[in-house]
Amino acid sequence: MDLFLKIVLAVVMVLLLFRMWPAYKSWQENGPKAQKGDWAAVVLPLAGVAGLVVVLVLMVR
């Protein structure tokens, strides 16, 4: 039964990928392009969150 559920889940995942493929192609062709400074706006908050998690882990140890 466990193997059957894994096979069904794999089939569902493949069908989901086929369903999302046209939207992915459209986003790739017509989506907004990154501007200078966009990556810094993403990396800075992620680094802050990662630092906060590290500090919290160190406080718990």
Strand content: under 5%
Uncertain residue segments: none
**If helices are DSSP runs of H or I spanning 4 or more residues, what is the number of helices?**
2
Q: Please give the alpha-carbon distance between the first and last residues.
A: 41 Å
The coarse overall form would be flat
Q: Report the helical percentage.
A: over 70%
Instruction: Let me know the number of strands.
Output: 0
* Rg, nearest Å: 20 Å
Show the helix and strand layout.
Layout: H1 2-30, H2 38-60
Word description of this protein:
This protein is mostly helical and 61 residues long. It is built from two helices and no strands. It is flat, with a radius of gyration of 20 Å.
Short description:
The chain has helices at residues 2-30, 38-60. The protein is mainly alpha-helical.
Keywords:
mainly alpha; flat; 2 helices
